[in-house]
Amino acid sequence: MKIKNDNWRVIVGLMGFVFLMRGIWQLYPCIATCAVFWLSVVFWRALFIFGEKYLSLKIAWSIMLLGAASNMVVTLANGGYMPVLSEKSSSIWVTATNSHKLMALADIYSGFSIGDFIIGLGVVVACAFWVGRKMEVRNERKIA
Predict the structure, then answer these.
(1) Are 26 and 17 within 8 A, CB to CB?
(2) 81 FRET partner, CA 20 to 30 A, in 7, 14, 39, 106?
(3) Can you tell me the mean pLDDT for 6-22?
């Protein structure tokens, strides 16, 4: 991603805010801290989508945003907690019960959710684009 002027400071600052909000959400799990965390994630990802000039990376960021939105929906629907299919619960993860909503989106696949897999797919697409772009540049240098 080509960032002009001082825009990189905004991106890095928002990334720091996202990590800070994740920590606050884990220390004080509730619907409010959950909502602020996920809204900051969505805003941060949207900056990458709208600021990117390569379509492939826009697609990769959009895929990651879709995965984050999936995780956001299930945690907000469950009062700021992510239900998991295990006896171990801590902080923002709670043992799933019949009363939890949207269980298909929760961490029910060996501790991962559908959203986590979608985010992973977005990372794979971004890496594939990056490797392909590097190879293109390398081939252009060989020809020139």
Answers:
(1) no
(2) 14
(3) 77
